[in-house]
């Protein structure tokens, strides 16, 4: 179990993490979400004692990370897959970690096999692809067979087979009663993997709840209805006091009434339904809605060069330096004002 109590981190005037308090519990995959710059990486670094908090504390099974006698046997982490000596082979990278933590040599071969790197165990890490580097980082996290695991963007560089593998691995680890804490920007993967969510924005806690509750609270849920007897269905719904909205494709949308109740209502009036489908927003939609006010970096579509006006400010064309558009605009304003 990982416990954060008032965790705070300042960098001069910048408040990177602001009074975070939450608990990561065993037996379930906990997703850690937030926009870029929200403080996720800083939080995870403080969990592992790589950064010191300005205030508050983190406890790993009741202790600070620095108090753990054999840390890799208690908590395994993948924060940066590139943090590997490029001149070492995958085998010797893991062997070094094993020897420094009192882990048997045989365990190196086991985790290499688990992550699918046995065939390249003797190859130097500097020649690894991004996906292979991710697998090596995951092997390092698994090396001590710890009860707590942390992964920061674990699917970076992985192909579809690798993504499917790491998804099932995290679920399996949680199913064994381990604590699994994972940060990712891939909402579709998080929706398939995590059962609980911790969401932060600008360093503050925004949500600490189950996946289903998070989506329900931060999105609109409704039921779609389609019928060849649309007008009669509308009359029946209105008489029953059901609020109905028309969808663009001719379907009807109903808020606040269960699909089962609507189906029974239609059946009792012998109305044929071609569609009766509960609709719920995706995790991505719910996340965007909750964090809209916490996004620090915004991109603007109008800052690109338009094909019909190639002389508009934006991405510089070949041979022109950055800033050419602003300079062109300034010159135009001078010419027009002259």
Classification by helices and strands: alpha/beta
Cα-atom radius of gyration: 26 Å
- Any idea what the shape is? elongated
Proportion of residues in helical segments: 25-40%
Strand order of the largest sheet: 5-6-7-3-8-9
Percent of sequence in beta strands = 15-25%
Q: Could you tell me the number of beta strands?
A: 13
- The SSE order reads EEEHEHEHHHEHEHEEHEHEEHEHH
Main beta sheet: 6 strands, mixed
Our measurement of the CA-to-CA distance between the termini, rounded to an integer number of angstroms, reads 70 Å
What integer is the average pLDDT?
85
Low-pLDDT regions? 304-338
- Counting DSSP H or I runs of 4 or more residues, the number of helices is 12
Kindly describe this structure.
With 338 residues, the protein is of the alpha/beta class. The protein is 35% helix and 22% strand. The chain is built from twelve helices and 13 strands. The strands form three sheets. The chain has a six-stranded mixed beta sheet, sandwiched between helices. Helix 6 links the parallel strand 6 and strand 7. The longest helix is centred in the middle third of the chain and has 16 residues, at 160-175. It starts with a strand and ends with a helix. The model is unreliable at 304-338 (pLDDT under 50).
